[in-house]
Design a protein that fits this description.
alpha+beta; Elongation Factor Tu (Ef-tu), domain 3; six-stranded antiparallel beta barrel; three-stranded antiparallel beta sheet; 12 strands
Length: about 400
């Protein structure tokens, strides 16, 4: 069988082996591509963690993951926290960062209209923004004061009538008792006279001087006198009690007086519905109503104890384990132009949704956070007392030794 030369085959495949120049070039390109892919992936990860573009932020929001969450000492920040330059320069891996707001101790208290004020309108404001008031001090008046004072006058008049009725009842009972006693004395005297007349008549009848009819009349008179004594004794028995106040009529009148006194005390208490008082001792922060306006549902004014300012910080749940009471805290806000300082006072017991968010529309608002309270020092309190609800960035130094919280 004749052998067909390779040049005579229908397909002439020019396969480049590894030793040919063309094969070596193709091998070098593939090797370079394999090396560049990890480099590009690494650079993309670094740039993505640094700039955190919107797609990466949406990925974290969708998956619930956080940059650096898998490390014991993450250095990446949540996408909705942008550190000031001076804080970023001194950032340590052990620091815990979170959004916070400045508030008075105990938070802001709402001063609302008193219970039962109804449709009353605001009549007068007794304080201004920035005034310091004590607990229970009047801060405003409502226009229902005249009506409530009129109810007090009516209750006082009703009490006076009930008291006069009591005196009248006492006098009537005393007179009735004396009259019953006099009636009994007269009935007993008539009985003695009737019995004496009956004895004389019986003697005369026995001598034949008096007739039988006269004797019967004497006996009937003696029997009527006996019944009169019985009726008088029964009437006097109604007033047999030595204590006049225990008499039924006097007791009813006394109870009516007590009811009138209770009603007067109630309407006097109702006059407090015309006065708005401070629920705590503190400073007036804001006034939300003007005279002539019905008190709004959100309250007439807001106040707080600005003598000790606090900060409520939201910390992601995966970082709370390193936070302890007494650790130093640094708070920075562009509006203040300086740094505030304080210490961790308490750590919340519940995990909730994030309440403080930045202006970034792609920020993760479903993050699970724990709220801690930070007590500002004296110097920081003086500065922050005029910035209630100011949003700041808090950095907790978890590597520092915790100080005792007073």
């Amino acid at each position: 069988m004749a052998t067909t030369p390779e040049s005579d085959l229908p397909l002439n495949l020019d396969l480049a082996d590894g030793n040919s120049p063309r094969g070596r070039r193709w091998f070098h390109k593939r090797y370079l591509l394999v090396l560049l892919i990890p480099v590009f992936m690494f650079l993309g990860g670094v740039l993505g963690m640094y700039f955190q573009p919107v797609p990466i932020q949406k990925f974290y929001a969708l998956t619930g993951l956080q940059p650096g969450g898998g490390s014991d000492s993450p250095i990446a920040l949540p996408p909705n926290v942008e550190l000031p330059a001076q804080m970023a320069e001194t950032m340590l891996p052990s620091d815990v960062v979170g959004l916070a707001r400045v508030m008075p101790r105990g938070d802001v208290s709402v001063v609302a209209a008193p219970y039962g004020a109804g449709d009353a309108r605001l009549s007068e404001l007794l304080v201004s923004v920035g005034d310091r008031v004590e607990r229970g001090a009047p801060v405003a008046r409502l226009d229902n004061q005249a009506a409530l004072e009129g109810a007090v006058l009516l209750a006082e008049a009703n009490l006076a009538v009930r008291q006069a009725t009591l005196l009248q009842t006492r006098s009537a009972v005393e007179s009735s008792r004396d009259e019953a006693q006099a009636t009994l004395d007269q009935a007993r005297a008539n009985l003695r006279e009737a019995r004496a007349n009956l004895e004389r008549t019986e003697k005369l009848a026995a001598s034949g001087v008096a007739t039988g009819a006269t004797l019967d009349t004497a006996r009937a008179a003696a029997q009527d006198a006996t019944l009169s004594v019985t009726r008088a004794e029964a009437t006097l028995a109604r007033f047999s009690s030595v204590d006049l106040d225990a008499q039924p009529d006097v007791l009813v009148a006394s109870r009516n007086v007590a009811a009138a006194e209770a009603d007067l005390a109630r309407v006097k208490l109702d006059t407090q519905r015309a006065l708005v008082v401070a629920p705590i001792a503190g400073t007036i922060l804001d006034i939300k109503a003007t005279p002539g306006q019905r008190p709004p549902a959100e309250g007439i004014m807001e106040m707080g104890d600005t003598s000790q300012m606090m900060a409520e910080v939201e910390i992601y749940q995966d970082r709370i384990g390193s936070v302890k009471p007494g650790q130093p805290v640094e708070l920075v806000a562009a509006a203040l132009g300086r740094t505030l300082r304080g210490t961790v006072e308490s750590i919340g017991l519940t995990v909730g949704r994030q309440g403080l968010i930045s202006d970034d529309a792609a920020a993760n608002t479903d993050a699970r956070v724990i709220r801690i309270l930070v007590a500002l020092d004296t110097a920081s309190t003086e500065i922050a007392s005029g910035y209630t609800n100011l949003e700041v960035i808090a950095r907790i130094d978890t590597s520092a030794e915790a100080r005792t919280v007073r």
